[in-house]
Amino acid sequence: MNLMEIEDLGFAYDGTWVLRGVTFRVAQGEFMGILGPNGAGKSTLLRLMDGLLTPREGRVLLEGRPVHTMKRREVARHIAVVPQGQAVDFAFRVAEIVLMGRSPHLKTWSFEGEKDLAVVRRVMEQTDTLALAERTLDRLSGGERQRVLIARALAQEPRILLLDEPTAYLDIRHQVEILNLLKKLNNINGLTVVAVTHDINLASLYCDRIVILDRGGIRADGGPGEILTTQNIEAVYGVAVTASRHETTGRPVVTPRVGA
User: In the beta sheet, which residues pair with residue 147?
Assistant: First the structure.
């Protein structure tokens, strides 16, 4: 079942087209990666999918409804976003930050109830952040902060989780921890995940499907083994690479050709 449909999508900043003619579907329960070089329109695409931007052309449909025409509170009950480079210089306690994710479900001027607190506890257990509840966000490591921000998004009880560079600035251990968490939520809870990333090999390992953006359009769309080819990567990124197969998973591994 298609949860979201992107139809002939186009968007421009100050008369310059960033995306144009972008069409794809997001199925319920997919783990999708969005790849592409800097300036390809990846972050803009996520903002359009969340309804924060209004398309110049085409539309984004959430179960048949144009996202940008929906009220923000309603969108937030279906779609949660973990943005790139979220400011972390405030001293809220972790439990308070995660509880903020319940706001789309609260009436104006109302307080959190037992259900809200139960949801917060559950998502903190899922993200292994319960032990951090009384600590402040500005005192956490990069990996801990990212888990907290994911917990806050999950507290919205969304059907779709959109992430913009969820492993940026993290070391390999914390990258794997975050992606293992997302894969677990996808497999066990059926959460639909769409993640923008620059890491081709991690996308290959974790994503069921990948969309490659290039100069505002879609270069390729399909499974990692189908589209992570030497030809596609060299054409999009302009660098000589070799696409081989991982000896255990059989998925593509892309390595640059030194000196080529």
Answer: none
Residue with tokens 């279906």: 78
Of 86, 1, 79, which Cα lies nearest the Cα of 47?
79
Q: Distance (Å, rounded) from C-alpha 170 to C-alpha 178? A: 9
List of E strands, the chain = 2-13, 16-27, 31-35, 57-62, 65-66, 79-82, 160-164, 192-196, 209-214, 217-222, 241-245, 252-256
Q: State the Cα–Cα distance between residues 128 and 243, nearest whole angstrom.
A: 35
Contact between residue 243 and residue 252 where contact means Cβ atoms under 8 Å apart: yes
Per-residue pLDDT of 178-233, as tens digits, reads 999 999 999 999 999 999 999 999 999 999 999 999 999 999 999 999 999 999 99
Give CA–CA dist 139/87, Å, rounded: 13
In this structure, which long-range contacts are made by residues 18-25, counting pairs with CB atoms below 8 Å and at least 24 apart in sequence?
A: 18/44, 18/216, 19/44, 19/45, 19/48, 19/213, 19/216, 19/217, 20/57, 20/216, 20/217, 21/58, 21/217, 21/218, 22/58, 22/213, 22/216, 22/217, 22/218, 23/58, 23/218, 24/211, 24/218, 24/221
Q: Does the pTM of the predicted model rise above 0.85? A: yes
- Spatial neighbors of 248 by CB under 8 A, at least 6 apart, are none
Which domains does the chain show, CATH number per domain?
Answer: 1-78+158-228 (3.40.50.300), 88-156 (no CATH)
- Largest pairwise CA distance in the chain: 62
Strand, helix or coil at 30?
Answer: coil
Residues 6+ apart with CB under 8 A from 125: none
